[in-house]
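name: query_chain
kind: protein
chains: 1
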Amino acid sequence: MNETELLARARPGRNDPCWCGSGQKYKKCHLDEDARASPAAPARSVRARLRPGVVSPRRPVPAAISRPDYASNGRPRAQGRDVKTAEELERLRRACRAAARVLRVSGEAVRPGITTDALDEIAHAETIRLGGYPSPLNYRGFPKSLCTSVNEVICHGIPDSRPLEAGDIVNLDVTVYLDGMHGDCSATFLVGEVDPEGRRLVQVARECLAKGVAAVLPGRPISDIGRAIEAHASRHGYGVVRSYCGHGIGETFHTSLQIPHHYDPSVRRLMEEGMTFTIEPMITEGTWQDLLWDDGWTAVTADGKRSAQFEHTIAVTGGGAEILTSEG
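structure:
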């Protein structure tokens, strides 16, 4: 089967829902654009778009585990402070070290054939073993303990029955609530043998996180972080997602503090020593624009091309940034 036939097989019927998740019929959405696609396009352009699988029931959390305020009803209430005391920072470090361990253990299980639901089970069990609560579970109704974002999924993918395939890339986003604090981190993993373009995307996304962390300095505007990330991504021909950003974190999963990953000069707030937040750039092969699946969570690239992400929780120090989501 040649590439033109593969592309045709990957497309839905004219009256089927469009692959992009817009809710429109394919003929009114991406039909014309796909028809103009070159038959010589690389293999990643003809990979079948993701479809949601079966989502298993919510996993239980032992009664002895301390829970965040939204665990029972899905509605977060408290708004934490962005600048932490020394005692709060120490508790946050413990939560972040736990999250880093859960991410490592879950990532070591990534392989062709494993389902994202099985990865959720691993992350859930390791979080409980460490005495923590999996922060995503029932946050605004999210049904799982882990976010698994495969290929064109930018973020907030819901673990389900779909097995990972060789050539996929998958982001695992872990947050652990422990000692009254949330620690948040993520990484993108290669599934089996991935094409050179996919490996390059993942490597540049990792570098973009490092550039953002290096831009942290008290007294400088938060916009410096996005400036550094966008400059590096653009040099490599990649997009930076704008609809989702980093956030303040601590006693609450998300504070009102936002950390854009593109350069936004209107973001003038200055970084302060003791401030804690996530840096989590989402880097795309094509457009930075996104669409949302009907599940209300799964964000995908508007053009169906791949996205990769890495994330750390950091604390602003006198000399720059302390990466909190490290096991060491």
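note: The chain has two domains: 3-46, 86-323.
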